[in-house]
Amino acid sequence: MKKLLFIIMICLLALFVASLAGCKKEDVNNNGNNNGNGGSGGGGSAQTGYVDLGLPSGTKWKASNETKDNGDVYYTYDEAVSTFGDKLPTKEQWEELKNNCTWELQNNGGRKVTGPNGNSIVLPATGSRSCDGDVDYVGIHGSYWSSTPSELESAWYLDFNSGSVGMDYYNRCYGFAVRLVQD
Fold first, then answer.
1. Residue pair 75/83 in contact by the 8 Å Cβ criterion
2. Alpha-helical runs (H) found in 22-144
3. How far is CA 130 from CA 9, 142, 175, 178, in A?
4. Which of 16, 77, 114, 139 is the most exposed place for a label (fewest CB within 10 A)?
């Protein structure tokens, strides 16, 4: 009877150890909530959610995109500004990221952005949502709002595709992705 109990305990212990072996580090650090929206090469994002890329301004970038409660990843400019305020990056912060980091195209159309200190974030190619609700260019373009307004009905945003990364301005009713910053 003791031998049978001992064998059962050993089997249970082996099952427990095997289940732990299947866990990834990010599952533990992010409580399994990475959602495929980003990541980091370090910089303490598991504790704070923000990654220090070693930029001259000291700005830290959030490790993942923002998502609404209903799972929607698109915000109009007015929604983004009213929801996130000064955590929404300015045009100048996007330009600093663009000019001081390397941008590596990923298989899914997104970009791995690596800072001067070697830490990185991933910006998915989320596409955009038009003013009348049509979603286009998913996996082809990444369009991210800045907090900086432009002309009367426009605001600045960062856009990338397989060939370029740049800043432009567009109608505020469009739905673009949001990535936050921390000073």
1. yes
2. 25-29, 45-48, 77-84, 91-100
3. 59, 14, 6, 16
4. 16
For residue 30, the one-letter residue type is N
- The residue type at 12: L
Is pLDDT larger for residue 37 or for residue 73?
Answer: 73
Report the C-alpha gap between 98 and 128 in whole angstroms: 20
Beta strand 165-171 with 142-149: parallel, antiparallel or unpaired? unpaired
Tokens 């698109």 found at: 74
The dihedral through the CA atoms of 74, 77, 78, 84 has a sign that is positive
Helix (H/G/I), strand (E/B), else coil: 113: strand
CA terminus-to-terminus distance, the chain: 64
- Which of these, 55, 64, 58, lies nearest to 99 by C-alpha position? 55
Secondary structure E strands in 97-164: 102-105, 111-114, 120-123, 128-129, 135-136, 142-149, 154-160
Helices (H) and strands (E) in the chain, counts: 5, 11
Question: Is a pLDDT exceeding 70 seen at residue 94?
Answer: yes
CB atoms inside a 10 Å sphere around CB 176:
26
Q: Flag whether the pTM goes above 0.85.
A: no
- DSSP secondary structure string, 28-58? HHTTT--TTS---SSSSHHHHSEEE---TT-
Mean pLDDT of the chain: 82
